[in-house]
Every structure is written in C-alpha cells, then in structure tokens.
Amino acid sequence: MNKAFTFILFCALSISMLYGQKRPNIVIIISDDHSYQTISAYGSKIGSTPNIDRIAKDGLLFNRAYVNNSLCGPSRASLLTGKYSHKNGYKENEKSHFEHSQNSFVKELRKAGYRTSWIGKQHLGDTLEGFDYFDVLINQGHYFNPNFKNQKGEMKREKGYVSDIVTEKAIGWMESLDREKPFCMILGHKATHREWNPDPQDFGKNDGKKFPLPDNFYDNYEGREAAKIQEMQVSKDMKLDYDLKLFKSEADWMKESNFFRMDESDREKYRSYYAKVKADFESRDFSDPKKLAEWKYQRYMTDYLNTAESMDRNIGKVLDYLDEKGLAENTLVIYMSDQGFYMGEHGWFDKRFMYEESFRTPMMLRYPKHIKKSKKVNDLLMTIDIAPTMLELAGVAVPSDMQGESFEKIIEGKEGARKQLYYHYYEDGIHNVSPHFGVSDGQYKLIRFYNKVDSWELYDLKKDSKEMNNLYNNAKYAEKQAEMMRKLKEEIKKQDDAEAMLIFEAS
Length: 507
Ligand code: CA
What we know:
This protein is of the alpha/beta class.
C-alpha cells in the first residue's frame, strides 16, 4: 500500500468515525395495541408506566400522533417504508404480503453506514431485508416460550416470557457492536396484544382496582352505520374463555397456544390465579346483562394493565443499558404503539376505526443531545413521518417517493408543518369493521365507509371529542362538509390512492 493511499484511507476513516459519533443512534420501541389512555405520561389514572414515562420526562410527548391504518402489520409496514399501505402493499393482516425487497428508511441508514436490526414482533413475514441482524417472532408470536427466526434462517424456540426475551436480545445486540458506527434498532414488543397474558410475577399489580366505565360504554351507535355492525364489544364479543381465561376444563385451556406453551411452573401460577377469578365470577348474579358486561370490563382492564407492567419493566432495562454505557446522550429513543386501542370507549376493545382512540397512538421521543427538557407537543404527526425524520437527523437524503413529512423541525423546537391526516383501513374480516378512508384536520374529521356499509360521517372534535354525533348532511355544517370533501379529495390525489378515488368519485 503506498503512502498517499494510506493517508487517504486514514482521512476517510477519521471523517467517518467523527461523523459516526455525531450521528444519533436510533432506538424505536414499538409495542402492540398499547393505549394512551393507560399510560401515566398521558395523565392516565388507571395505568402506571414509570419506565415509558422516563422517555417523555426527558423529551417530547406527542398528544396528536396518528397512524394511517390502525392495524398491526400495516402500521409497521408504514413505519418502515414511510408510505401508505396502498404504496407499500401491506394493506391488511389477513391477505397482504410484504415485499421486503422494497426500500425502507432502515435500508437507507444502512447504506449510510448504520448498523441495523429489528428484534421481536414485526408481523411482516420472516424474510426481512435491510438489517444486519434480525430475530423476529413468527407472525403474532406467543407470550410464553415463543419461536423466533433470525437472519440466518434459524428457527428457535426460546424459553421464558416474551417481553423479557426480546429485551435480552436487544441488549445483547447493542452489546455486540463496536462503537465506531451508529446503530438503528427497532424493538417490537408483543405486549399488550390480545389476549393479554402477563408475566405471572405481575399478577395482582392491578387487581382489586375499580376501573371507571367510560361514559359512552353503552353507546347505541345511533347515526353511525359501521359502528352498529362491528364485532368488538366487551359485552358480546369478548370471550370469557379465550380473552378472560375462564375455561371450563383444563383440556379446553390446553387448546390455547399461550397456555400449552408455558412451562408447567408458569401454568401452575396461571391456574391458581384464574381459579380465584373463576370463583369470583361464579359467586355473582349476572341476571342483569349489564352486570356481566361490567365484570368483563374490569377483568379486561386488569389483565391488560398487568401485561403492560411486564412490558414497562423491560423498557426500563433498555433505558438503563443506554445510561450505563454512556449511550443515552446521543441516542434518539422513540416509544410508540402500532396504534391506539379501545379501553371500553363505545363499549369496545380492539382498534381499526378512524375514531380517535384507535387512530391516535401513544408516541414519545427522547434525544438528550438536542432536547434538554420535557415538552408536550400538540402538532399533528403521522407515524409515516418517522422514516423521513430519522433520515434527516442522520444526514441522509430522503427518497422522493416517501410519503411521510419530516418533523425534524419539531425536534428543533419549532412548529410542525403537517396540516392534515389521511387514513385508509382495508381489512374486511375479523371484528367486522367496514373498510373506510378519511381526512382529519385536527378538529374536523370526514370518513367514508365502503364495502360492508356505504356511509359518510363527519365530526367536530372540539364539540364532540367522543365522536358520538355524526354531522354528515347536517345543514348547519354544510359549508364545513364541503370543505372537508375538498380536503379529502386533495389528500386522495396527493397520496395517489386510486382505490379511494374510484369510491369517492362514485359517491
Ligand atoms: Ca396492533
């Protein structure tokens, strides 16, 4: 090697190392079905999430972060690609295929020298591309002794509780890296997805509390055709056995994968805990159906919150690791869910609708090098905006076909630029939620349902934050309705959603 070449190589390495140190590490922790209503950083009185709250305490808490398709796989596909479902091809969980050869912000970061990984739940198949390392749950994954598949194609059944395992893998990967290159890790939690199986050590953490019923728990869905036909009600669709673990017999319980996969020692703890729940159930008089619905609601909340405790403790371990290794200052950490979730509002569990509880998702961001104190952000944001924002922060050019809008300005302490939110939900299966698309400007929301029901809805969130009063074709709102129609058409065009345009034009 001649001297000149050695010198050039030395300079290039020095620049890349210097640059490498400046560029932030990125850790995105994405949970599943975790509701902002149960996160204490959002003021929840019913849920306690001290570790998740640490991210908001040192950074930004987004009060108006939204998803473009409120469902597990589609939400993660959009996070990764910065594109709407009709562009990245993953529209629904039941029939879609995610083509991993397409571009993603992680691939762009990797090309720019980042070390990259996805660990835990992704729900987009098991042949990922663009990651130095991946180790993902198969589809939904299991809470106990789950199967994982890694980038070598090896399938492995891991021993233990899923939130502990993904955390251990995440810390293990970060520990394996040299510190010369920045890294981007996405950590996907299975919790708090149905059917809400906590680590047995968290049994009792939220028991005996009296959770107040949301005031629209007994919604009659008047004026809302799609809401009338859904099958996601706590009262009639939440199952006593599958969801609330009151099985008639041990044999029935053993048919459930989360139960039969457990070690016998965990199964014993589950049997003992739910035997007491069953005894309580059997001691009650449920001749009034409302009594049964309310009992189910209390049990749903208890199981859900206990599962969240198991996850929150593990998120704390990742934050502790960053602190201990001196990585916290230059590591941008995002905590988010793949969408919001109903905690009994409208009488529901599950997600899917463009109504606020499932359209909005919890999201917070910490980046101590640039953000020095906690701040609540009320600017509109979509999770497809994360991809271009991460690229901008890393000094990487944003591909022109990414549809998200960077919110780097918000991180710099300035006002966000996003004015409208466009949404499109496709799945036409479980829970019987009619496909729909719509637009929101933060105050007004216009929704077009199609396929199962053929209807429009219009809401004024300032006056009706619970979305109980459909204003579509209300003469007083004629002008606003026309304006929102224009905005919807504008978004459909801008996002190039041909399927929505056909339906819109035929209306
Ligand atoms: Ca989900």
